[in-house]
Amino acid sequence: MITLTTCFSKFRRTGTVAVLALSWLIPAGAVEIQWSPGDTFAYGATIAPGSALELCGAVDPRLPVEWRYQASGPLTFDIHRHSGSEVIYASRSYLTRQQNGRFSPTFQFDWCWTWANESAEPVSLRVDLKR
After folding, report:
1. How open is the CA angle 12-121-34, to the nearest 5 degrees?
2. Which of 3, 131, 1, 2 is nearest to 67 (CA)?
3. pTM to 2 decimals?
4. How confident is the model at residue 119 (pLDDT cuts 50, 70, 90)?
5. What are phi and psi of 18, to 5 degrees?
6. Which residues contact 129 (CB under 8 A, 6 or more apart)?
7. Contact 111, 129 (CB under 8 A)
8. Among 28, 36, 119, 128, fewest CB within 10 Å belongs to which?
9. Confidence category of residue 30, pLDDT binned at 50, 70, 90
10. How buried is residue 126: exposed, middle or buried, by Cβ count under 10 Å (0-12/13-18/19+)?
11. What does the radius of gyration of the chain's CA atoms come to, in whole angstroms?
């Protein structure tokens, strides 16, 4: 059973290099993006320490996605897709509490918005997507 907080193995920081590969550590069963009739998707969750949350769904190049998130603490964030065993990142940031942007891929693929909590405290997250 999948809960709002998707857990995976603990990860550690070694100096300034994060030993972290979110896309393959997160178990299958990420939250699927379900677009509303108004082409929006909103999601809220609390991410436990050492855990991550992944929201995934098809993104059509003709319908770019305006995205934003706000968190109660710092999170590592990325937008990525899989191509076989390769992970292709469209965006990455480290230890941010909020961001927004417009995502307009060249081709239609399933893309994932992913947040990881590297802190020792739970972090609340609110995500809004609009296409």
Report:
1. 90
2. 131
3. 0.77
4. very high
5. -85, 125
6. 33, 40, 41, 42, 55, 65, 66, 67, 113
7. no
8. 28
9. confident
10. middle
11. 14
